[in-house]
Amino acid sequence: MHLSEINTYPIKSLGGVSIKKSIVENRGLQFDRRWMLIDEQNRFLTQRNFPKMATVAVKIIGGGLRVLSGSETLDVSFEPATYETSSVKIWSSRCRALIYEEKVNEWFSDVLETNCRLVLMPEETIRRVNYFYAVHRDDAVSFADAHPFLLAGENSLADLNARLDAPVSMNRFRANFVVSDSESFAEDDWKKIKIGECVFHVVKPCARCVVTTIDQNEGIKTGVEPLKTLATYRIPKRSVKKKILFGQYLIAENAGAVLNVGDKIEVVETKNSPEFR
């Protein structure tokens, strides 16, 4: 098995960046979801409510980010010009973030047609992983929904697409790592893996939502697929909440490692996967 894709999503819910290598940090890949857009109540903006966010592209350039929407371009420095902070909300968690200057916020508000502000998670802000899934006491996460890394398998997607009338792309699932040459849904059985020189704990399957129904290139909801089909075979039999699972969340054992596309993936330890419908 090998690492076929590395993807980072610098600004939460905006377009992803496919890269050849990346540094593994405690709270996720370098630059991954360290920025986020918030509404007037300081709550995070998401494609669930603003599908157009998918079409806003982000590039990592020297000194910052370049954001593109149609013919409009904005360069954003890695850190805001001011040091104004605010408490921001991601689901049930709150943390401190740095707020960007007004001209940046006006650009995003115009593009998304809603009042919003861009914020950065500074190094001193520590957002803890849910203790129930944490491996280490100091496990942290960026502005990602819950966990530092997300992995999915190419053949798991192929299995899904074989059941769909219209196949979907892997970008619907917004994974950081994509695995090649594994059996479909083999990742369900993994407890610990090694990618290149970095060991990862596989801590939790990813429960899927309506973001998977959004065409990431067009920024529009396309109906009920692939969730409808996934629901026929990717809900554990003993699941009380009937969550639809695709992909696995990871926590790194050794931050600081550099991962490269093509790195070998080894299964270090396995577990008993849930029985599905």
Automatic annotation (TrEMBL):
MF-aspect GO terms: catalytic activity; molybdenum ion binding; pyridoxal phosphate binding
PROSITE patterns (UniProt xref): MOSC
| Domain of life of the organism encoding this protein | Bacteria
Q: Where is the MOSC domain?
A: 121-268
Q: Which InterPro entries does the entry mention? A: MoCF_Sase_C (IPR005302), MOCOS_middle (IPR005303), Pyrv_Knase-like_insert_dom_sf (IPR011037)
Q: Which Pfam families match?
A: MOSC, MOSC_N
What name has this protein been given in UniProt?
Answer: Flavodoxin reductases (Ferredoxin-NADPH reductases) family 1
